[in-house]
Amino acid sequence: MEFDDVSDKDVTNGSMDDASIESAIAQILNAVGEDPQREGLQFTPRRVARMYHELLGGYKMDSNAMINGALFEVQYDEMVLVRDIEFYSLCEHHMLPFIGRAHVAYIPDGKVLGLSKIPRIVDMYARRLQVQERMTRQIADFLRDLLKPQGVAVVVEAMHLCSMMRGVKKHDARMTTSAMHGAFRANLATRQEFLANISRGEMPLQI
Predict the structure, then answer these.
(1) Residue 105 φ then ψ, to 5°
(2) For residue range 16-40, what is the model confidence (pLDDT) as tens digits?
(3) Which of 29, 55, 81 is the last residue of a domain?
(4) Cβ neighbours around 42 below 10 Å, total
(5) Which residues form the catalytic set?
(6) Taking the mean position of all CA atoms in its chain, how far away is CA 149?
(7) Where a domain ends, among 5, 29, 55?
(8) Digit-coded pLDDT (tens) for 135-155
(9) Residue 48 is part of which domain span?
(10) The whole model's pTM is what?
(11) Is the dihedral of CA 12, 14, 15, 18 positive or negative?
């Protein structure tokens, strides 16, 4: 099953040059006055290069392979909600983590998606150099184009280390972003039902 109509224009070719990453990290260590050859740092450039394969693995995820045919014809037209999906991403401005939860809902129009695929979609966009606003929109747009449902809603809440560790240094500040399509945008009652569901028994963000 192919999903050629699913737009994913921000995906790179997925290649990662470990040697260049290792060289760059060694240069940074030198630039801040450290010795890249001392015992504790000797293998740090290699560790960082390997780490980026995991933290930035979303660039290499193939959306067709990830969905893997997990679309099912079901006569169901009530809200489907997956809430409190943990994610970890890297802010593209300072390359520091932002960490939070995504809440994703849709109202089917003849098709539903396998449950495990929604967290995978969140990861596909989180594991990149990101800004939270773009990531929220990408998740919503992907589900809209894939399922063509009656509506899609995504809310993302996150704590950003770039504002906790530097700059304003506000430890408890969190950012909330949302993206709505279809019934969630047009129908106030549907939107309120979604927001009520994600606020019920809300889990606090912790770092």
Answers:
(1) -135, 155
(2) 899 999 999 999 999 999 999 999 9
(3) 55
(4) 11
(5) 91-94, 132, 160, 162
(6) 21
(7) 55
(8) 999 999 999 999 999 999 999
(9) 18-55
(10) 0.88
(11) positive
